[in-house]
Backbone:
């Protein structure tokens, strides 16, 4: 399969997983706690099963690293080429009845995410992109290209985490920047807003966020002309020990 075909595979699975998530939401669900005290629901597990099964059916020799499988069975060693899956990013938002939860699928090659899909089950929208080839949004059955925007003259629109904010670090980051607006929201939907040109910067300066939380968003944003960098200004790499990221900043298009 070429990367366009791989992207369409991931898009279809994100769509199927999103339908399953919404079915669980309508039926009602219990909230459980994983070993790290983070929440998990039947929707997380059902969606990951759909995605993993579909990826392995199409490409049985490729490693799939999924959040829920890692929580239950441990973390596999990374390979040169592997999938990273967060079936329901923003479980806290899902459990609270907010719409800011997404399904994330990314393909990593040589430690870099090369394509990414972010599905928004509550709206039926799909964001997708291939690094070097562009990004698009599918909404209402139609697709249109999207691109990160250059910083507007009136100042930056900053996206901040609803649940994982490091106040001191974020305030320090903002010193010297002209911030015109701040929106707090959950999940990797923030990457999609940056890729669509709805905002300009997202600092996530505390370490501990996992690779499956960022891989699809990084690929999407890079495909749209943005970037995701660590404290040294280098793009995030993948397949690190424990699949754990350092702090980072996601930016829209450069000035």
Residues:
């Amino acid at each position: 399969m070429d990367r366009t075909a791989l992207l369409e595979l991931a898009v279809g699975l994100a769509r199927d997983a999103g339908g399953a998530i919404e079915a669980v939401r309508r039926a009602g669900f219990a909230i459980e706690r994983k070993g790290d005290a983070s929440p998990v629901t039947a929707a997380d597990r059902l969606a990951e099963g759909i995605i993993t099964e579909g990826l392995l059916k199409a490409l049985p020799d490729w490693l799939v690293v999924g959040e829920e499988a890692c929580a239950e069975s441990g973390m596999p060693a990374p390979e040169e080429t592997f999938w990273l899956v967060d079936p329901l990013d923003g479980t806290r938002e899902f459990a609270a009845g907010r719409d800011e939860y997404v399904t994330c699928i990314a393909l990593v090659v040589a430690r870099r995410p090369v394509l990414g899909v972010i599905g928004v089950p509550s709206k039926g929208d799909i964001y997708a992109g291939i690094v070097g080839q562009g990004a698009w949004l599918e909404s209402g059955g139609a697709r249109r290209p999207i691109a990160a925007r250059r910083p507007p003259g009136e100042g930056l629109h900053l996206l901040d985490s609803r649940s994982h904010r490091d106040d001191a670090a974020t305030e320090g980051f903002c010193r010297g920047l002209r911030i015109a607006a701040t929106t707090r929201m959950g999940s990797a939907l923030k990457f999609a807003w940056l890729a669509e040109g709805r905002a300009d910067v997202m600092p996530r300066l505390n370490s501990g966020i996992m690779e499956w939380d960022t891989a699809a968003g990084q690929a999407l944003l890079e495909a749209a002309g943005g970037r995701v960098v660590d404290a040294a200004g280098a793009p995030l790499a993948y397949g690190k020990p424990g699949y754990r990221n350092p702090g980072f900043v996601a930016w829209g298009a450069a000035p």
Q: What stands out?
A: DSSP finds seven helices and 14 strands in the chain. The chain has a mean pLDDT of 94. The first strand starts at residue 32 and ends at 33. Residues 83 and 107 are 5 Å apart (CA to CA).
